[in-house]
Amino acid sequence: EKKRERKMSRPHIVAIPYPAQGHVIPLMEFSQSLANHGIKVSFVNTEYNHKRIVKALAGESLIDLVSLPDGLEPWEDKSELEQISEALKWIMPGKLEELIEKINGGDGENVTCVMADHHIFWALEVAEKMNIKAVAFWPAAAASLALLLSVPKYIDEGIVDNDGTVLKSQAIQLAPNMPAIKTADFVWACIGNETTQKIMFQFMVRSIKAVQVADWILCNSAYDLEPAAFTFAPEILPIGPLLASSRLENSAGNFWQQDSTCLQWLDQQLPSSVIYVAFGSFTIFNQTQFLELALALELSERPFLWVVRPDITDTTSDPYPEGYQERVASRGRMVSWAPQQKVLAHPSIACFLSHCGWNSTLEGLSNGLPFLCWPYFADQFTNESYICDVWKVGLKFEKNETGIVLKEEIKNKVDQLLGDEIYTARARKLKEVAITNVEEGGQSNKTLQKFIEWMKS
Known about the structure:
Elements: H1 2-7, E1 12-16, H2 21-36, E2 40-46, H3 47-57, E3 64-68, H4 81-105, E4 113-117, H5 121-130, E5 133-138, H6 142-149, H7 151-156, E6 171-172, E7 181-182, H8 194-211, E8 216-219, H9 227-232, E9 236-238, H10 261-267, E10 274-278, H11 287-299, E11 304-307, H12 324-328, E12 332-335, H13 340-344, E13 349-354, H14 358-365, E14 371-373, H15 380-390, E15 394-396, H16 407-419, H17 421-438, H18 443-456
Parallel strand pairs: 1-2, 1-4, 2-3, 4-5, 5-8, 8-9, 10-11, 10-13, 11-12, 13-14, 14-15
Antiparallel strand pairs: 6-7
Helix pairs in contact: 4-5, 4-8, 5-8, 11-16
């Protein structure tokens, strides 16, 4: 009897992110927040990512970290999105069921809910099959999800083919004040080669169907950042921005160990003087482009902090121009991975040169910083449109005829952005908007409270 009471004593969520850095961080953030509200969370990573996170986390966690095999041999290339997506589809559903049964057979609380990244559609199907609550988690902008949910409409209108091939070149805007996106920049259309694109498209079509079994679709955004998108797709509910800073804690779920020495370096710089340059976990530059960026930062004559992942260029040799590191040593700092939320909150930062991943976008906004946008793939073009066209807190770069952004263009845009107070002023207004949504009485906070009540019912 006692054991039965304990097993039903509190809700128990199994949370499953898509195994990419930008997806793991917000779901882990949300899981920490639920754990603070007395809900037990078992956070499931692939074995490969589990090891990286445990190593980078190095400390206490309120949530249980669990790993499942991802169906790839250890020597296969884990960063190939299509391999991961294919493998996840095949291997995980049975394993997830086994995991839930194993948890329910043990001494702890029974699993009452599966909360899965929208891309892990089969996990929602497993929840339905096992008759437990199902929650879809969308880690990006509501506008990006609304664009995906509209795929059947694009097929009907002959904008894309049944396999995702783009048939018409045009800009799509679902409603006024929503970002406009070129059909060539559709999420699946700017990833890898044709085969990858078709796999990703089928994957997305499947996930749209599966998400319909979810009891809730929760989104890491705020109503007041995207009122048009949330009005257009009212089934999407805002719970963001999910940032560690709002819990006054460190961000968890990083795949790389952070170099915190750059914070001391920032302490020595003037207020609002430093350009922070970071491109997330996937962006890869060819050598020519890398050199242009390096030289542009030197030309800018401003202090800069640049995150250069070991695998950021497609070359194995030293990617910097000859003598570069010595020449910029007095005002430039290069690190391999930074504690980004702490960097962006630092008073020395002036602007954020970013790939516009959604986490980076929210982190920059929440610190009232203007942007220079350099999107690479996936939803980053939608986010760029928000930053430059809708919120008007940043600038885009123009590429030359060979597809390269030249150093002069970079330097000019830096000067333009930092030479006009209006960008920073608008960004500071948005900071207020973002913060009030997660505070008591804010829309995201209300959604969270309702969700917790539902979980406990």
